[in-house]
Amino acid sequence: TTFRIAGICGSLRKASVNKKLLLRAQQLCAERIPSAVIEIVDWSDIPVYNWDLEENPPESVIRFKNDIADRDAMLFITPEYNWSVPGPLKNALDWASRVRLGDRGDVFKGKAVAVMGASPGSAPGSSGSGRAQLILRQSFVSLNCYCINLPTVMVTDAYNAFNEDGSLKNVRLENNIVSVLEQLIALGEKSKS
Ligand code: FNR
C-alpha cells in the first residue's frame, strides 16, 4: 500500500514560497519515490485556541487532526516569523494536541515527522527558516513524535531559488529533500509495524 505523508505548509498565503517548496517536495516524491505520496492538508480555517472552546471543538480542528491521523507520517514546511514558528502554525498544532478523536488514541505518539522551510532573506545571518524549524522540533518532543534530523532543508534567497518549472536551482538541495523523504518513509514504516 502507498505510504501517505501529510504535507503541512506553515504559510497560508497564496504566493507562499514555502507552499512552492512543498509542491516541489510533492513532485520529487512522485518522481523518485513511487511508493509514497505527499497529500497537502488544509488548516486555514482553524480559529485562535481557547480552552473554553474545547468542550465543543471546532469542526476545522477535528478535520485537521483526522487528516494527520489518516497519514503515515508528517512533513512540515514552514517560514520563520521573528526567529520563531509562525503563530498560526503553532496555534494549529496546539489545537491538534488537545482535541480527542474518539477511539483513535494518541495520534501524534510515535509518528514520524520531517521539517523543512524557506525564507527570502539572503543577507548574512539568513537562516532559510532554520531557527523556526529548530523551535518547531521542540514541540515534536512534547508530542512524542520522531523527527528526521539531517540533512537540513533550509532554503535561503527563496524568491530566486526556483526555476520556472518549480524545480530548485540547487540540485544538492533537491537531493537533500529526497533523502529526508526516504528517511521519513523508512522511519514511518518502522513505527507503523
Ligand atoms: C517575516 N519574515 C522573516 N524571515 C526570516 O528569515 N526571519 C524572520 O525572523 C522573519 N520574520 C518575519 C515575521 C513576520 C511577521 C513576517 C510576515 C515575515 C519574512 C518571511 O520569511 C517572508 O515573508 C516569507 O516569504 C514568508 O514565507 P511564505 O509566506 O512566502 O511561505
Task: List its traits.
5 helices; binds ligand FNR; 38% helix; 193 residues; alpha/beta; 6 strands; Rossmann fold; 15% strand
Rounded Rg: 16 Å
Largest sheet: 6 strands, parallel
Task: Determine the CATH superfamily.
Answer: Flavodoxin domain
H/E series, N to C?
A: EHEHEHEHEEH
Count all strands and give the number: 6
Measured distance between first and last alpha carbons: 13 Å
How would you sum up the global shape?
Answer: globular
Helix content: 25-40%
Counting H and I runs of at least 4 residues, what is the number of helices?
5
Report the structural category. Answer: alpha/beta
What would your notes on this structure say?
This protein is α/β, with parallel strands linked by helices and 193 residues long. β1 (3-9), α1 and β2 form a beta-alpha-beta unit. Strands 1, 2, 3, 4, 5 and 6 form a six-stranded parallel β-sheet that branches. The mean pLDDT is 97. The chain has a single domain (3-192), classed as Rossmann fold (3-Layer(aba) Sandwich). It is 38% helix and 15% strand. The structure holds ligand FNR.
